[in-house]
Every structure is written in C-alpha cells, then in structure tokens.
Amino acid sequence: MAALERDLQRKKEKMASEDGISKLPDDILICILSRLTIKEAAKTSNLASRWRYLWTCFSGCLDFNDLVYMKSFGPLGDGRDPRSLRCIDQVLGSLKVKDQSLEELRICLDIDPNCDVDSWLKFAIQKRVQRLDLQLWLCKSEWYNFPSHFVSRSLTSLRLASVYLNKEGLENLLCHCPFLEVLTLEKIRILTSIRVSGLSLKLSYLQLDSLVKLKDHLEVDVSNLISFEETRFGLSTTCFEPVPILADEMLREGCFSLSFVPDDVFGRLRTLKLEIRNMPEAVFYSIPELPNLKHLDISFHIYTYGFFPCVAFLKACPSLYKLTVQSTRSISPYERKVKKHSPHLTLRVAELVGFFWLRDDVKFLFDLLENATLLEKIIIDPGRAYLLGKPGEKFYRKNSWEYKSARMRAIELAAKFPHLEFVIP
After folding, report:
1. What residues are paired with 395 via a beta bridge?
2. Whole-number pLDDT of residue 9
3. How far is Cα 174 from Cα 200, in angstroms, rounded to an integer?
4. What's the CA angle centered on 237, arms 358 and 365, to 5 degrees?
5. Any idea which of 74-78, 253-257, 323-327, 366-370 has the lowest mean pLDDT?
6. Rounded CA gap, 396 and 376, in Å?
7. What percent of the chain is helix, strand and coil (3-state, nearest 5)?
C-alpha cells in the first residue's frame, strides 16, 4: 500500500512538472496564488513538493468573515466555541512574515473574549497589511479594547466596528499611521468626541457610522479630504470635494445644528447626500448658498414638512444639474411652490424613487415639469427604496399590484411629454 501511494505521488509530481504553469518562477506563482482565496491557495500544497510551501507566501486578501467557511479548514468546534477560531491563528501562523506584505486582512466575526486579537494585530503590523477591516462582536458584554499604541507605516485603509476606542486612541492612531487614506469607524463605544486634523494626514475618505456616544464635538480639518460621511440618529450627510473641511455638529434629542468652516467649503461642494428624519423645519431656512452643487440626493420617509427640504435646497443651488428624491412620504400639504422659491432652475435630470402618485408626489412633480424649463430627463421609480439591491426587490416588482399600477401611470405621463426622456424601471 505504501509503495502504491509513493508511485501515485511520483506520477502526480511528474504531471505537475510537465504542465506549463509549474515551469513559471516562484514569484509569478505566488502572485497567482495571491489572487485566490487563502483556502484555494492552501489546497495547491498537495499538487507537488514544489508547491508545498508556496501558499505560505500568500500576499492577497485574508478574509475571515464566515465561520462555516472557516470550519472547512479542519475539524473545528461550535460557531461560538473559541476552538472555532483556531483556524485564524493556524493560518496566520503558517504564513511567512519576512519579505512578504499582505494586501488585506479582514476579520468580521463573533468572537470569544479569550481570543488573542492582539496577536492578530501584531501579525497585521509585521505583515505590513495595507487594508485592515476589524469588526468584532463578542458573545458576552465585553468589547475588544483597540490598542492605543497601534503603529503601522503600511496601512492605507482601516475599518473598525464594535470595539472600544477613545479620543486619545484615535488621535494616536492617526498620528502613527501616516499613510492612512481611508478610515471607517462604526459603532465605536466610549467615543464622545472626534478630532481629525493635521497637515501631514493623507486621509481622503472618512466615514462615521452609528457613533451613538458622539455628542460633544466633531472636528474634521484635512486638506486631502475627498469624502466625508456621517450617520447618526437617522441623519446622514455626505460631502465630496477636495477642500479642507471643518465640521462642528451637535445632535441632542432631535435638536440639530450644522456648520462648516471655512465658508468656501459650501461654495465648492459638488455633490450632497442627505437622509432626513424628524429634523426641525427651521434647519432648512438657514441653508447656505451652494453655487456649484451639481447633484443633490435627498432621502426621507414619513416627513412632517413634505417636500419643503427639496424646494429649500433648489433655492440654494442655482447650478443644480440633478435632483434625486427617495422614499417620499409626505403627511402635510404641498404649498410651497418651486417657482416662488427657485425662479431660475438649471435642473436637467430629476429622479424620483418610491413614487406612488400620492397627492403631494404629483403636485411636486408637476411643479418641476412646469418650472424646470431646462429639464431633459425624468426617472420615475415606483419601487420601494428600502428594497433596492436586496433579494426582495425582484419579487416586489414582479408581483406587487401597487408597483405595477404606479408604473403604468408613469408610462401614461411619459406619453404626454414626448420632448422629455423618461426612464421607468
């Protein structure tokens, strides 16, 4: 039996040595393996003796976000048993650290408090990881305390979710990761204030999501910033423009105020995305002028003041090219006319998502058709916005009488305006 196994192994190695890919240099083979998943790369160790350790030079994306997938590495315990996470330690321990960097390390799992997360971060530093995504959900009440002494000169993208990180830890992180370009903080405990500032920062993209403790101060002053997105208590704002941004926001029990300094930030803004829920009407009476804004995307559900935010922004955006309104559900009469507040519209494209031909939906649409004389294209999507891109979207569009009826009315409307391009999904 042993002799037969040796013969089979020799034949396998002979076949492997005769194929074209095995004649390639190790560097090229490692590059190919690094385009696979780590599991697929590890399987190549069975091809021949030459392949046995090539996978340990893996430099692609290490993605640990599925316990079922992780269990396939070997006999592991229950999904919430610490033994289920041994494969992370096994894989990280098998990879060569010296002379090899890693594109990405992603760990998004339920973990046990006894897991040695510090060793995973040490590996990320030694392996010179470029993108690190750490989303940890503990089975008990304790959360992982992200180390304040984390230092990496290779990291360009960092996502932290469901960990402890205070203001000083964040400032130290930014100071000791000089090449960080993308930073996402989500559900970070004890973080009550944020200061992201410094001439030396390379940060281009900053996203803050569900930081419920953030009540004191938010300051962002980065010369390279291209995108800033902040979602908290139902408010989401996104700004795209390569200019310095300094934001000071306060959100307390529905009270909202927002100011950007310096003043020219608004003047150079090109795209603005807002998700509005239960904001006081007074906010929209103090919108600064946005002379260069080209695309405004407003999303709201059941909103007391109807389409007034849209009209208020149209007044503040004399160069607006595209307006997107999602999930409109107004519970107040539409009384504020577009012409009265925005007599000189430059709007070329209007996109209405979640349009069900309610009274105020129709009034706002016809107000646009009457006063936006440069309008060229209208997108009317009767689909529900919260289903877009999700498994239920196709079923809804195929089976919903509400959707089919609204779509038919949109088609009838398009026939009355042949000079306009209508898109009706």
Report:
1. none
2. 63
3. 10
4. 25
5. 253-257
6. 29
7. 35, 25, 40
Residue 401 CB coordination number (10 Å): 7
Phi, psi (degrees; rounded to nearest 5) at 57: -95, 15
The DSSP symbol for 279 reads -
Are 153 and 175 in contact, with CB atoms under 8 Å apart? Answer: no
Residues forming beta bridges with residue 302, ordered by sequence position: 329
Cβ contact 138:109 at 8 Å: no
Element housing 315 (H / E): helix 308-316
Residue type, 230: E
Q: What is the Cα–Cα distance from 191 to 203, expressed in whole angstroms?
A: 19
| Amino acid at the residue 243 | V
Alpha helices by DSSP H, listed for 37-85, are 38-43, 67-71
Note the pLDDT of residue 153.
92
Question: For the segment 269-283, what is each residue's pLDDT rounded down to a tens digit?
Answer: 677 777 766 666 666
What does DSSP say about strands 182-186 and 377-381: parallel, antiparallel, or unpaired? unpaired
Phi, psi of 365 (to 5 degrees): -60, -50
pTM as predicted: 0.62
Tell which residue, 312, 294, 295, has the closest CA to residue 303.
Answer: 312
DSSP, res 229? E
Give the list of residues 6+ apart from residue 335 with CB closer than 8 angstroms, or none: none
- Residue 321: CB atoms within 10 Å: 16
Residue 237's pLDDT is 42
CA 80 to CA 234: how far, in whole Å? 32
Nearest of 151, 152, 139, 83 to residue 113 by alpha carbon: 139
Structure tokens at 402: 């509400």
- Spatial distance between the Cα atoms of 393 and 239, rounded to a whole number of angstroms: 28
Strands 61-64 and 102-111: parallel
For the record, the structure tokens of 40 come out as 């697929």
Can you list the alpha helix ranges (DSSP code H) found in 105-217?
Answer: 117-126, 167-176
